[in-house]
Design goal:
The complex is a heterodimer of chains A (382) and B (427). Chain A is of the alpha/beta class. Chain A has one domain: Rossmann fold (3-Layer(aba) Sandwich). Chain A is built from 14 helices and 14 strands. In chain A, the strands form 4 sheets. An 8-stranded mixed β-sheet of chain A has the order 4-3-2-7-10-13-1-14, with helices on both faces. A two-stranded antiparallel sheet of chain A has the order 5-6. Chain A is globular. Chain B has 427 residues and is an alpha/beta fold. Chain B has 8 helices and 24 strands. Chain B has a 6-stranded mixed β-sheet, sandwiched between helices. Chain B is globular, with a radius of gyration of 23 Å. The relative contact order of chain B is 0.10. The chains are: A alpha/beta (382), B alpha/beta (427). The interface between A and B is medium-sized, with 25 and 27 residues.
Chain lengths: 382, 427
């Protein structure tokens, strides 16, 4: 993070029109059958960011309604090791959720009365604190800690601070897993927020608010270095076994429903992600693409390129939010396997919809803010 | 000196070459005309008398391998670079899953710390006769030792030696590049006197029961790019701990009283001591209140004076784990050099004796630039200018700096083997 920002500065930045506006009462449509998704243009991570996010939250019915007096857990996206870059560009300009977006979200949560905001990410191959992981990415965690009265950090790639893992059940039994054992932070919260980056994905077609939550699976149970019987103590490596299905998670956790299902990542990953977001419902999905990358989820996917869509999307239903994101990216949210961007994989949106998580048909989604046609940024060239 | 060939003069300031066993013809010495090779290490006394005699005529010192001249400390190391898997092809993995990198830098530094003033030569066995060593690996071996103030004993693989003997253009070109790299470090010989810019020191006897663990700790700490110093327990006095933020004491047994007191004072003044469980019984370090910091799975954190003591729950037995723990206990906030991309880069940070310049020696252990994923270095501090020294140019190239909070970023495109990033500090 090249610029630092104190809580006072966050407050100062927020003191414009957005602050003058009281939190809007819950819109009736937000509680109705049509989930609402807000879109905002935001060309930079500068002063316009906070008002843009405030405006989106207001359009969704106001943050206060959602977070006041609550413990809010925010899963950010810091995929892979911190030393990957696309060219010389900082990770937050391509494949990580930008820390200024995180800071703005934390600040607005605090201002809306959140009792506690807990930032979560499963840090690559380490049990070290999330703050240390952020420092390795050249971020300043103190800026985030100062953005609201009570901000905590937790690395969720292992047991963490709790004495045991939390078991979350997948409604309807799930496509692959009927339940997951997760770091306690995903249970010990009143409101769960997925704060994601808008990107293509080599295996899942796109990675948005739902795919971001694949990273809540601790590799001590679901990773290549997971213990066979019990979770490993230290997290090592990635979640290759979730991709390949080459082995089951640690026996202490629920196994796959049917180990005879295809062992192909393009079949498995969309289903596992759909199961995860069914087991751990997302209360607020925020997807940022002020700057991002196209062609893949990280610099290790080639070819890929840095892009500047200048857009933010947020909603209280993750499937609907991701559907709108796909439209903004120039894709058809109703796309199925064999059509872009799901040429080789199944649609996570379709699978999550099948679990009753939410709709992907834009006709069943109320879109507010900037129209899709004005926010459109085609991730595929040509 | 136990040298049948007889040592014929003072240590030549130039570089040592392990004379290839198959070179019996004195004609090969023609290669050394104008080259910065000043010392030949011959395979044996027998069979090389003609070579030795001719070398002396050319003012090149000679000695048997294994019998270095006075004033030279010769240490046995490894061939630096990325270790390949036995089946060939892919690189072998280290403790992190990242490619395993061999380096002699830590060994050179340890040897220099234990024998100050000695000329440090580092050698490794010649590769098997059927193994072709790429030129880049010869250059990496040279840069790896030289960056830390040592001299890699140039050791040719059989193919390279045969090619040179036959004056094959490719071999001669490679030889010239190797000699150019030596000339580069000769031209910057003052760098070897620049002390390490350390934020942390490892204090150990580095011998006896402590030898294996403490040395592996140094080796693997270098892979984490912690900028560390090396201090023998016997030399652990308050003045040796000045300017440090942390000390790692990996030995199982408590240090002698003087060193212990120095470390306790260091903590009282605000330093961090990372040590094994025996410190809990150390007089003067009464258990303090638990800190408010996040509990650590392997260490108990105690406040003492203005500083902290991190006591391992049990005696550490995994040097890589201890290296990583040390970096996090101290905090990445104090990383001096951090790389993005450049997964095979290693850094050794030094500071000029007058404190006005800093120099980060950067070695690319992969031996080749990655144009698809160009490296960036983040260097802590604020600087007036940055420039890059490399083998490819006699002059340093100015580097564009991206200013950051408490640091700068500089791009490192095309860094194939070695780059010296020289930084001019604001004074």
């Amino acid at each position: 993070m090249s610029n630092t920002c104190t809580r006072r500065q966050w407050l100062a930045a927020a003191s414009g029109a957005a602050l003058a506006r009281a939190f809007a009462p819950a819109a009736s449509a937000a509680a109705g059958p049509m989930p609402r998704v807000a879109i905002a243009k935001c060309p930079t991570y500068g002063p316009e960011l906070l008002p843009a996010m405030q405006r989106m939250f207001d359009q969704l019915g106001g943050l206060e309604r959602l977070v006041k007096g609550k413990t809010v857990a925010i899963k950010v996206n810091m995929t892979g090791d911190t030393n990957f870059r696309l060219g010389h560009a900082p990770a937050e300009d391509t494949h990580y959720t930008h820390p200024r977006v995180i800071g703005a979200a934390v600040h607005l949560m605090g201002r809306a009365g959140a009792r506690r905001v807990r930032l979560l990410e499963s840090c690559w191959s380490t049990s070290g604190p999330l703050e240390e992981f952020m420092l390795q990415a050249n971020w300043e965690p103190r800026d985030l800690a100062g953005a609201a009265p009570r901000v905590e950090f937790e690395n969720t790639n292992y047991l963490g601070r709790a004495g045991k893992y939390a078991r979350l059940q997948t409604p309807k039994g799930g496509h692959i897993f009927q339940a997951f054992d997760l770091n306690h932070s995903y249970q010990d919260c009143d409101v769960f927020v997925s704060l994601a980056k808008m990107k293509d994905h080599a295996t899942a077609g796109v990675t948005l608010s739902m795919k971001n939550c694949f990273g809540i699976l601790p590799v001590t149970i679901y990773g290549d270095g997971a213990g066979v019987d019990e979770p490993s103590v230290e997290p090592h490596g990635g979640r290759g076994i979730m991709h390949s299905g080459s082995r089951q998670p640690s026996k202490s956790a629920p196994p796959e429903n049917d180990p005879k299902t295809p062992r192909e990542d393009t079949y498995r990953i969309p289903r596992i992600v759909a199961d995860v977001v069914a087991a751990r419902p997302i209360d607020l999905a925020i997807v940022e693409a002020v700057r991002s990358m196209a062609g893949g989820e990280g610099p290790w996917v080639k070819p890929s390129r840095a892009v500047r869509p200048g857009v933010l999307v947020a909603g209280t239903n993750c499937v609907a939010t991701d559907a709108v994101c796909m439209a903004v990216m120039g894709y058809d949210p109703m796309a199925v396997r064999g059509t872009p961007p799901f040429e080789k994989c199944d649609s996570t949106l379709q699978l999550a919809e099948g679990l009753g998580v939410g709709p992907r048909d834009l006709k069943r989604i109320e879109m507010v803010g900037t129209p899709v046609r004005e926010a459109l940024f085609r991730y595929r060239l040509g | 000196m136990n040298c049948a060939l007889g040592y014929n003069g003072p240590v030549h300031p130039n570089w040592p070459l392990r004379w290839p066993a198959e070179w019996r013809d004195t004609g090969a010495l023609d290669l050394l005309k104008g080259a910065p090779i000043g010392f030949l290490l011959l395979p044996s006394a027998d069979g090389y008398q003609d070579v030795a005699a001719r070398a002396r005529q050319l003012d090149i010192a000679v000695c048997e391998i294994g019998h270095p001249p006075p004033g030279v400390e010769m240490v046995k190391g490894e061939w630096p670079g990325v270790r390949m898997a036995p089946a060939g092809g892919d690189a072998a993995s280290g403790p992190t899953g990242a490619p395993w990198v061999d380096s002699n830098g830590w060994l050179v530094r340890l040897s220099r710390a234990r024998k100050p003033g000695a000329d440090l030569w580092v050698t490794a066995d010649p590769p098997p006769s059927n193994e072709v060593v790429p030129l880049s690996r010869h250059l990496v071996a040279l840069a790896d030792g030289a960056a830390c103030g040592g001299r890699w004993v140039v050791t040719l693989d059989k193919g390279f030696a045969d090619g040179l003997a036959a004056r094959k253009p490719g071999s001669v070109d490679g030889w010239n590049k190797l000699m150019g790299a030596i000339a580069f470090f000769r031209a910057h010989s003052e760098w070897s006197a620049w002390p390490v810019d350390a934020v942390l020191s490892v204090v150990s006897t580095f011998s006896g029961d402590n030898e294996f663990f403490s040395r592996e700790l140094l080796n693997l700490m270098a892979r984490t790019n912690i900028s560390y110093g090396i201090l023998e327990t016997a030399a652990c006095r308050p003045e040796a701990l000045g300017g440090l933020r942390a000390v790692v004491y990996p030995d199982a047994q408590p240090p002698p009283a003087e060193a212990r007191q120095a470390l306790v004072d260091f903590v009282e003044r605000g330093g961090l001591l990372i040590a094994g469980p025996q410190w809990s019984a150390t007089p003067g370090v009464a258990p303090g209140r638990s800190s408010a910091e996040e509990p650590h799975p392997r260490y108990e954190l105690r406040r003492f004076g203005k500083g902290r003591i991190a006591l391992a729950h049990k005696q550490p037995d995994d040097p890589y784990e201890m290296a990583q723990d040390a970096q996090i206990l101290l905090s990445h906030r104090y990383d001096l050099v951090r790389f993005f991309n450049g997964f095979l880069l290693g850094a050794y940070s030094t500071v000029s004796p007058d404190g006005k310049r800093r120099l980060a020696h950067i070695v690319n252990y992969g031996g080749g630039a990655d144009d698809d994923d160009p490296a960036t270095a983040r260097i802590a501090g604020r600087f007036r200018s940055a420039r890059l020294w490399s083998f490819e140019s006699a002059n340093a190239r100015r580097l564009e700096m991206v200013e950051q909070k408490d640091g700068i970023e500089v791009p490192l495109p095309g860094l194939t083997v070695y780059g010296g990033v020289e930084l001019e500090a604001y004074v």
